[in-house]
Design brief:
The complex is a heterodimer of chains A (230) and B (262). With 230 residues, chain A is mostly helical. Chain A has one domain (7-214): Phosphate transport system protein phou homolog 2, domain 2 (Methane Monooxygenase Hydroxylase, Chain G, domain 1, Up-down Bundle). Helix content of chain A is 81%, strand content 0%. Chain A contains six helices and no strands. Chain A has helices at 7-40, 43-74, 78-112, 124-144, 147-177, 182-214. In chain A, helix 1 packs antiparallel against helix 4 and helix 5 packs antiparallel against helix 6 (182-214). Chain B is an alpha/beta fold and 262 residues long. Chain B has one domain (3-257): Rossmann fold. Chain B contains eleven helices and ten strands. A six-stranded mixed β-sheet of chain B has the order 6-7-8-3-9-10, sandwiched between helices. In chain B, a hairpin with a 2-residue loop joins strand 9 and strand 10 (234-240). Chain B is globular and about 55 Å long. The chains are: A mainly alpha (230), B alpha/beta (262). The A-B interface holds A 1-6, 9, 74-82, 215-216 and B 217-218, 221, 245-248, 253-255, 257-262.
């Protein structure tokens, strides 16, 4: 895209994109680490996820400040306006994604408390991986102004939803067979729900990216797991 | 005009231009512009200097007639009537299609006379009492009455720039025009005087078909419902103002309004 006549405007937009790329990288890492901590009963790694969420929150505040500054001083128009508004909305969503990862990490010590092997745990990392990739791709789509990649993210949400339904059924069956594990498994249900929500939020980001890149909205679609089981 | 362009044109046009070309000598300043303007929407013409927006505006009340080298082709109608037809009375046309200029240009006469002059020569007032009514009504519509009602016989040139511009708008209104053309009416005014003119434009919308040429894109965004972007004598894009400023279809429009115009 051609440069603005006013160079400082381009620099500010670049800074904005840099911050959002960093935020996306951190959110994806938080999801990955939380899943790893869950699998390994690693309290230290879980505590690290909780601590590192502060930086994600800080980036959100920084982006908000920069967006307000750009709107006030540069009066952005057209695709510039769509970009900065999308940035403002995206950081609020990614902050939420960071919170879901943090919430998963916070459950690790409780799930690990009895040092029991919980077979259904093995299903969660692949679900977490798909959701994490959706987050990463949604933000890559923003960086590259790539509407096709955004559409691909939206379409992948059903994978996470299917995972969720499958994990839900597996956990319920497991709890029936192993009533002593109900307390831990209940937490795993929340973990699965959090990952499912991360997928939904990544989809929201992708929709904002699509609008910013094209000026048109994606058609409305079904949200959340197809079967109402919660 | 394509079907899409047609669909963006207002339903009840007050003025219609079709394939209008303007030549200054051999130079083609306007290269076949087709556009409709109506009473319900303020239409803004934007574009870089030399793009032809002012030249085109001036074709709408034949101000280009005064430029010896200028030649206009195509058709422009007012209520379906060809304004370039030989039967058209140009003085009458300019009463129906009034104009406000960049620099406020009140007559070096009293505030009262500035307003009363037009209605008097056009025979719109039968008596002094009629004229008083027209003067008050015009100044009220121009948002100036409260500020000048106690000094109607002071010179118009003694007013501030913003007041002078509103006086000129009042003068245009006084002859009961159908269309008001404004050529960068705020470029010589401070932001407060500008805001007053913009508010006035907002109030006049619906009573007159208003067309405003402005260099200030924010102003076009604030006052208009339709925006036309001109570039190098072409009408590049014409559409609903919100669309033009949030999602322009043409690359040239986008580059211009986002500040990427080289």
């Amino acid at each position: 895209m051609a440069e603005h006549t006013i160079k400082a405007f381009d620099e500010e937009i670049d800074t904005l994109r840099g911050l959002i790329a960093e935020m996306g990288g951190r959110a994806e890492a938080a999801i990955e680490k939380a899943m790893l901590a869950l699998q390994r009963h690693d309290r230290e790694l879980a505590a690290q996820v909780v601590a590192e969420d502060k930086r994600i929150d800080a980036i959100e505040a920084e982006v908000e400040k920069l967006v307000i500054q750009i709107i006030a001083l540069r009066a952005p128009m057209a695709n510039d306006l769509r970009d900065v508004i999308a940035a403002l909305k995206i950081v609020a969503v990614v902050e939420r994604i960071g919170d879901y990862a943090k919430n998963i990490a916070k459950r690790v010590p409780i799930i690990a408390v009895n040092k029991r092997t919980l077979e259904p745990i093995s299903l969660l990392p692949s679900m977490g991986q798909v959701a994490g990739e959706m987050v990463q791709d949604a933000l890559n789509a923003f960086a590259a102004r790539d509407p096709d990649l955004a559409v691909a993210v939206v379409e992948r949400d059903t994978v996470v939803d299917d995972f969720y339904n499958s994990v839900f059924r597996t956990l319920v069956t497991y709890m029936v067979e192993n009533p002593k594990t109900i307390s831990e498994c209940a937490h795993l249900l929340f973990v699965a729900k959090n990952i499912e929500r991360i997928g939904d939020q990544a989809t929201n980001v992708a929709e904002m990216v699509y609008y910013a890149a094209t000026g048109n909205s994606l058609p409305e679609r079904e949200r959340g797991p197809s079967e109402i089981e919660e | 005009m394509t079907e899409e362009q047609k669909s963006l044109m207002p339903a009840n046009p007050k003025m219609s231009a079709r394939d209008v070309k303007v030549f200054y000598g051999a130079k083609e300043a306007i290269k076949g512009v087709s556009i409709d303007v109506d009473m319900d929407n303020v239409t803004a013409f934007i574009g870089p200097s030399g793009c032809g927006k002012s030249t085109f505006l001036r074709t709408l009340n034949r101000m280009n007639d005064t430029v010896a080298s200028a030649r206009v082709e195509g058709t422009i109608t007012l209520d379906g009537e060809d304004i370039y037809a030989s039967s058209m009375d140009v003085v009458q046309l300019r009463a129906r299609v009034g104009m406000v200029f960049q620099k406020p240009n009140p007559f070096p006469k009293s505030i009262y006379e500035n307003i009363a002059y037009g209605p008097r020569i056009h025979g719109l007032a039968a008596s002094k009492a009629d004229l008083d009514i027209i003067v008050e009504r015009s100044l009220r519509r121009a948002g100036l009455w409260e500020e000048v009602k106690d000094r109607l016989h002071d010179s118009g040139t003694a007013l501030s720039g913003g007041q002078q511009q509103r006086l000129c708008i009042g003068r245009a209104i006084a002859v009961e025009p159908e269309v008001i053309l404004m050529d960068e009416p705020c470029s010589a005014l401070d932001p407060i005087a500008t805001a007053k003119i913009e508010e006035l434009i907002h109030e006049l919308r619906g009573k007159y078909a208003i067309v405003i040429v402005t260099h200030n894109m924010q102003q076009a965004a604030r006052v208009s419902q339709r925006t036309a972007f001109f570039h190098l004598g072409d009408l590049v894009e014409y559409g609903v103002t919100t669309d033009i400023f949030t999602n322009p279809r043409q690359e040239r429009t986008k580059d211009y309004i986002t500040g990427r115009y080289g």
